[in-house]
Amino acid sequence: MAAAAISGGHLVLSTPTSTRRPRSLPLRPPSARPIDASSASAARRGVAAAAVSSPAAVPSTGKDAKQLPKDFLHINDFDKDTIMKILNRAIEVKAMIKSGDRSFQPFKGKSMAMVFAKPSMRTRVSFETGFFLLGGHAVYLGPDDIQMGKREETRDVARVLSGYNDIIMARVFAHQDILDLAKYAPVPVINGLTDYNHPCQIMADALTMLEHVGRIENTKVVYVGDGNNIVHSWLLLAAVIPFHFVCACPKGFEPDAKTVEIARSGGSKIEITNDPKEAVKGADVVYTDVWASMGQKEEAEYRKKVFQGFMVDEALMEMAGPKAFLMHCLPAERGVEVTDGAIEAPNSIVFPQAENRMHAQNAIMLHVLGA
C-alpha cells in the first residue's frame, strides 16, 4: 500500500519502504521530524523555557517571531511549514497504530498530567489512549481534583505538576488559565480547549480534510452555527494556511472581530454572513457544532429560537453540492443543529474526524516533546 505524506497542504502518496506497516514510513525518519534537534532539546522536560506562546489575538512580532514556542496553545503560534510537518507526522504515526505495530514507544517512561476543568469524553480518551499507545502514562485530574484558581493558584499548579510530569494538557474555561499554565510551567502545555479556542480539534479537522478532500489550501470551509471557539480556531488556521472560510451565524453571534482580522491578514478569504443557504454553495466542507456549549446550557432554549434556519440538514447539504463533506466536532444534538439523516449520510466524515483527535494530538505531543 502507499504511504501518505503532505506537501504544501496537499495529500501525496508515495511507495512505502517497508511491508510491515502498510502506508507508513520507517520509524522516526529524520525527514519526517517536525522540529530540528535544537528546538527539540529546548522543549524537553526540565529545561527552562523562555519561549512562551503569546495570545492568539496578538500575532508575534520582532524577535519574538523567531522563538519556537514550547507549548501548543494557538495554531497561529506556528508557521505553515511546522503545522504541515505535524500533520505529516500524524499520518505516519496513525498508519503505524492502525497496522498494529506497537514498537514505536517515544513516550516510554514519560507521564502527562491531564487537567479537566471542563469534562469531555473525546478529549480525555483520545489523549489518554494516544499517550498510552506511544508508551506513556497519563494522569487524569477532574474538576474536583484541583479546582485551579480557586483552591490553588494556577501558577502554583503549573510548577507542582511540572515537577511530576513531562507534559501538561489542560481543558479549561478561561483562556487566561491556559496562558498562565504555560507561563509558569517549565514543561510543555497543550491547550485541550478554552472558551476562546480549540486548536487540537482543528488540527484533527485539518488531518481529516487531507485524508478526504486531499488538501487544505484552496478549499472552501463553511461553518454554520455559533461563532464560538471552534470558529476562532478555524480562523487561526486560516491565518497560517490560506483557504476560503465562511461563518454563517445569526446576528449577534459572530466570532471575535480581532481574530477575523488575523485570519484575513494571512491571505485567506474570510466571510461572515447571516445566510447559511447562500454560504454553503460550492463548499468542500460544511461544519457545525452545538448551538449552546458547556457553560451556556441555560441559554439553550433561547438559542434554539434565534438559530432557527441554521440547522444542517439534508436539504442544506444538497445546496452545498455533491463534493461537500459534513463535519461536526461532537457531541451532536441530533435534531437541533444537525439532523440524523445528515450525520449518517455517506458524505458525513464525522466519525473519522473524531478518531483523528487522537492521531493529531499524538503528533502535537511528539512535536512539543521533541520525540
TrEMBL record:
Its main location: plastid. Residues 1-39 are annotated as: Disordered. It is found in: Plastid, Chloroplast. Its EC number is 2.1.3.3. Coiled coil: none annotated. This is ornithine carbamoyltransferase. The keyword Transferase applies. It is an enzyme of class 2 (transferase). HAMAP family: OTCase. Keywords: Amino-acid biosynthesis, Arginine biosynthesis, Chloroplast, Plastid, Transferase, Transit peptide. The lineage of its organism: Eukaryota, Viridiplantae, Streptophyta, Embryophyta, Tracheophyta. Belongs to the aspartate/ornithine carbamoyltransferase superfamily. OTCase family. GO terms for molecular function: amino acid binding; ornithine carbamoyltransferase activity. Residues 218-367 form the Aspartate/ornithine carbamoyltransferase Asp/Orn-binding domain. Residues 70-211 form the Aspartate/ornithine carbamoyltransferase carbamoyl-P binding domain. The keyword Amino-acid biosynthesis applies. It catalyses: carbamoyl phosphate + L-ornithine = L-citrulline + phosphate + H(+). One of its GO terms (biological process) is citrulline biosynthetic process. GO terms for cellular component: chloroplast.
